[in-house]
Amino acid sequence: MELNKPIAQHLYKSIRSLPHLMPKLSWMTGSDARTAKEREETTEFHSALRAEARQRILKLIYKKPMTSAQIASVLGLSRSVVGNHMDILQEAGIVRRVEIPREEKEYVKEKYYTVAFPIIFESDRKKLDEMAKAIGNQVSSILKEEIPRAREVYRSTKVASLGWDFEKVYPYVESRIRYFSSYDLESALGRRPVWIIGFELTEEEVNQYSRMTADGNAE
Length: 219
Hints:
The protein is mostly helical. It has helices at 5-17, 36-50, 52-61, 68-75, 79-91, 122-155, 158-161, 166-189, 203-214, and strands at residues 25-31, 66-67, 95-98, 112-115, 119-120, 194-200. It has two domains: 5-121 and 193-214, Winged helix-like DNA-binding domain superfamily/Winged helix DNA-binding domain (Arc Repressor Mutant, subunit A, Orthogonal Bundle); 125-189, no CATH class.
């Protein structure tokens, strides 16, 4: 499996700034903002994710809840700086407080934090990828069957009369197929204006990234 270029670039920036912590966590985000308020929330959400320090925090707490003091100690930041970052991440709904058994706390009033989004662990990726591949193959078969009809409809359009091939316009058609199918899924799964899902990189992906950095190809 080749390492996705955006993931590689994302990893490179993180590892370069924090070489003693190999980040296995990456994430994907999406938004479907339809109102002014949702667009504002989406902007705040992505702004909260943009800061490198906050990305480093997420990579620390996704497996094990930590306190601000613990995070500050590992990252070499002041507690006040970490506290400010945690406030921003909480406000954006990216991290949340969790309760830890009292006997595990060094101090009773310690507050522990973890990510507030689902994590697809490496052990889960194969199962989910196999399922997604099976669905993708079914969708691909349907599209192949519908291509002749799509070409017929396309021949009656103005853009076709201007000499543009169907292949040049197909990316637009595909995007509209995704758009309309997503509305059918909304009724079954619900809609979220903005979302984030984390996933662990496989050892193969991490090793491939390491080779890229060693060769100087991750710039």
